[in-house]
Amino acid sequence: TRKGDLVGEAQALIDGVPQQTDDGDAMVDVILDAVDGTFESIPPGRRKDIGMLTEAVRRAVRAAIGDEWGKKPIVKILVHVVDGKAGS
After folding, report:
1. Quick count: other Cβ atoms within 10 Å of Cβ 2?
2. pTM of the prediction?
């Protein structure tokens, strides 16, 4: 594991969102695609800014759900990133 790598899966806390899109796709897949795409678009060196990373992922998830559902829910994102410090 390298500095800036995601440790485990990001967690998205979202209430009141349908389980499927209008096309019948799983909404969780839409959310995971938004998380993965956003995370991968941020260079590893910038990922150590947890506030920026979390906000970018939150906005991407909210927008992706909005595109599919027509509503933008309240979204909270929890991520864990390797920071390179001993004991982390």
Report:
1. 7
2. 0.77
